Amino acid sequence: MQLRVPPLGESITEATISRWLKREGEAVNAGDTLVELETDKITVEVPALKGGVLTSRARAEGDVVKVGEVLGDFDDSAVTVAAPAATATPAPTAISQPPSATAVGAAAAAAELRAAPSAVRLAADFGVDLSPVTGSGRGGVISKPDVMAAMSAPKAAAQAPAPAPAPAPVAATTAISLPPVAIARATGERETREKMTTRRKRIAENLLQAQHATAHLTTFNEIDMSAITALRDRMKEKVEKEHGLKLSFMPFFAKAACLALKAFPTVNAQIDGESIIYKHYVNLGIAVSSDAGLVVPNLKDADRKGILDISRDIIAVARKARDGKLTMDDLTGGSFTVTNGGVFGSLLSTPIINYPQVAILGLHKTQDRPVAVDGQVVIRPMMYIALSYDHRIVDGQQAVLFLVRVKELMEDPATMLID
Fold first, then answer.
1. Any idea of the CA torsion for 177, 181, 185, 186, to the nearest 10 degrees?
2. Count of the separate structural domains present in the chain
């Protein structure tokens, strides 16, 4: 039987083969993942529907494939294999173009262990042995943060003697090339050309579409974070003890945004041809940076939830984004987006609208600055906030007043209870 690209979700027609998990001639059980496909939104696992043998792989890692296209051939007439025994270890694959001993060790470990491509690249660049690294991703997959944690581990632990690995035959038919960037660095090349992934191409297309299809404009304001910081500091220990949540500022901003959208519904609207669709709900998108790129999962009906429920939802979608477990439902249907460049140190920026939405709220780094209060210069923790909006339906007055409302709610958080 032929293994084909499955339906990938609404409006998604192609994907990139990110990783083959089974080799040609390898026997698999029903339900085992054969190959992972990366779309512009999520990573899709293609499983074996029956037990059998993967007889051939028609496309290679990095190839762009369309829905319904043949990925390979699968023989389901073979006898279903038993679950692999604890002693069964896949043979390490041959590595082409080995630039250095450390890079070879990292790539060989990645061949034997399950590791994300970004983790393999980082390990190859810094000569990290992946064999003792414990994966925190789904199915024990080693992620980039796992490699970074291994790099920062105490030297005593790193120098602890490890049992000598048993010799294993090298597979002669399968070769894994090191990442182009790692090879280029090791061989002294000045430039590297790497094909854009499907997700990166789609992100680029969507951002250009937002700039070209909207009357893009940004307005700014600033928030004195003193009151909300004092509230968070007073409540965080109690919230963590009673609810198991580490309280951040984002849930407060999310709640403030929902209340401001209620006051200015056009900011939560959408243009459809010559009509304006007013949404009487807030599916709040939260921009999340992951190893696979930028994703914007949304919190359904965030306007109906309290700050603690919003906090739980944010933690849940962020974890799913890091683990590559976001679903199409998580990534579709958003009506307004919040993005926080402050976590990376951004002091001021102009966020791009998440089209077809008509506005996006940008948060930034909190920094102590001198400000005038009651005629006196004092030092306060201040944050710049930005609202990018589609001027076709959102007037400047509405955009400015929306930010003013967010500012008022954050500087006097007790008013969120009244609203």
1. -10
2. 3
Residue 216 annotated among the catalytic residues of the structure: no
Q: Which one is catalytic: 63, 233, 368, 391?
A: 391
Between 400 and 155, whose confidence is greater?
Answer: 400
Tokens encoding 81: 């294999």
CATH number at residue 55: 2.40.50.100
CA atoms of 300 and 279, how far apart (whole Å) = 13
Q: Which of 233, 329, 368, 395 is catalytic?
A: 395
Please name the helix (run of DSSP H) or strand (run of DSSP E) that holds residue 208, with its range, or none: helix 198-213
- CA 223 – CA 256 distance, rounded (Å): 12
Each residue's pLDDT tens digit, 240-277: 999 999 999 999 999 999 999 999 999 999 999 999 99
391 is catalytic: yes
Give domain status of residue 83, yes or no.
Answer: no
CA dihedral of 118, 122, 125, 126, whole degrees rounded to 10: -170
The verdict on 180 and 214 lying in the same domain is no
